[in-house]
Specification:
- The chain is built from nine helices and 15 strands.
- With about 300 residues, the chain is of the alpha/beta class.
- It starts with 6 loop residues before the first strand and ends in a 16-residue tail after the last helix.
Length: about 300
C-alpha cells in the first residue's frame, strides 16, 4: 500500500457559482489537503468559469460542452481522476461544505474500508447520508455513542465518499445514462456486489442541504419536505426501476412491488402537501413507465414541464 497516497477531490457543478465558491473554500481549508481539486462544470452559464479563473487558479477546471447531469458529471470527474493515477478519489456536489477535518478523519480510517463516507448534517442538525438496502434505500441511525468511530454501511450518496482507485478499476464509473438521481445508489450497490467494504466515519462531517427544507402541518400531521422541483421525481423514480431491472440478485417482483408502494405513498404525500401535486405525480408515474420500459438518458428537461420524446 502506498504510504503517501495521492488524493483527488472531484466536484460537479452547474450554475451555482456562489455555492461552488464556498465549497472550494472549504476544500482549501482542509487540515489534510487533496493533491488536486477537479471541478467538472456541466456547461454553466452564470460565470462559473470566470470565477474559478479569477479566484481559484490552483483548481483544475473541466468545462463540458453540455449539461449531462450529475450522473454524467461524476462519470467524467471520476474518469479524469482515475486517469491521472490517484490512489483515492473524493467526490461531492457543489453545495457540500466539509468541515476542516473532514478529509483527515476519513483518511485516518483508510485501512478499515475501501469506501469511507462522512456524516452529512443539514440546517436542522439532522445527521444523514448512509444506509443499507432492504427493498430500497433504508437510512441508518447515525447518532451513535462518540466512542464508536466507524459503522459498516451499504448505501451512500455522492456527497463526500472517499474511495480507493481499485473500486473504480473493478466496477467502473457511474451510469451516465441516468442523467441525475440514484446514480450514487446504483454505484454503491455495484461496489457491494463486488465485495468492497464501505463504512461511515462518524466524526467526519460535511454540511449539506438536500433541497430547501419546509416544515408543514396538514390534518394534524407534521411533515418535513424538501423543495425538489417536480421534474426530478421523474429521474429518481425511473432510475430506481432501472436498477431493479439491472441487478440479477434482486428479488425483482418483490422489489418492484415495494417500489410501487413507495411511489403510491409519495404521490399521496404530494396530494396532501404540495400545491403543484398534479405535476409531481405526472413525473413520478412517467418515471415508473419509462423505468419499466428501460428508457434511459436525458428525457425530462430540467426546470421545464415538457419532455423529450
Amino acid at each position: 500500500m502506498n504510504e503517501n497516497p495521492k488524493i483527488a477531490a472531484v466536484i460537479v457543478t452547474f450554475n451555482r457559482k456562489k455555492l461552488l465558491k464556498e465549497c472550494l473554500k472549504s476544500l482549501l481549508n482542509q487540515t489534510i489537503m487533496p493533491d488536486e481539486i477537479i471541478v467538472i462544470d456541466n456547461a454553466s452559464t452564470d460565470g462559473t468559469d470566470q470565477m474559478i479563473g479569477n479566484e481559484f487558479p490552483q483548481v483544475t477546471y473541466v468545462r463540458l460542452s453540455e449539461n449531462i447531469g450529475g450522473a454524467g458529471g461524476f462519470h467524467e470527474g471520476m474518469k479524469v481522476a482515475y486517469g491521472k493515477g490517484y490512489d483515492w478519489i473524493w467526490v461531492m456536489d457543489d453545495d457540500a461544505f466539509p468541515v476542516p477535518t473532514a478529509l483527515e478523519k476519513l483518511m485516518a480510517c483508510s485501512k478499515e474500508a475501501d469506501i469511507l463516507v462522512p456524516v452529512l448534517v443539514d440546517s436542522l442538525g439532522r445527521r444523514y447520508g448512509a444506509g443499507r438496502w432492504q427493498f430500497g434505500y433504508i437510512p441508518i441511525n447515525l447518532d451513535y455513542d462518540v466512542k464508536i468511530k466507524i459503522v459498516p454501511i451499504e448505501m451512500f450518496s455522492f456527497v463526500g465518499p472517499l474511495f480507493r482507485r481499485e473500486v473504480v478499476a473493478r466496477i467502473g464509473f457511474p451510469r451516465e445514462d441516468f442523467f441525475i438521481c440514484a446514480d450514487d445508489l446504483e454505484w454503491a450497490l455495484r461496489a457491494k456486489m463486488a465485495g468492497f467494504v464501505a463504512c461511515v466515519v462518524l466524526d467526519s462531517v460535511i454540511f449539506h442541504e438536500s433541497g430547501e427544507l419546509r416544515i408543514l402541518r396538514r390534518l394534524g400531521r407534521i411533515s418535513i419536505r424538501n423543495s425538489q422541483p417536480p421534474w426530478k421525481h421523474y429521474y429518481s423514480t425511473r432510475n430506481m426501476f432501472l436498477m431493479l431491472n439491472h441487478f440479477k440478485w434482486f428479488k425483482r417482483n418483490l422489489e418492484k412491488i415495494a417500489l410501487f408502494y413507495r411511489v403510491v405513498r409519495w404521490s399521496l404525500g404530494d396530494i396532501l402537501y404540495e400545491p403543484d401535486w398534479q405535476q409531481r405525480i405526472y413525473f413520478r408515474w412517467l418515471g415508473v413507465l419509462h423505468g419499466l420500459l428501460g428508457k434511459t438518458g436525458k428525457v425530462v428537461v430540467p426546470s421545464r414541464t415538457r419532455h423529450n420524446t
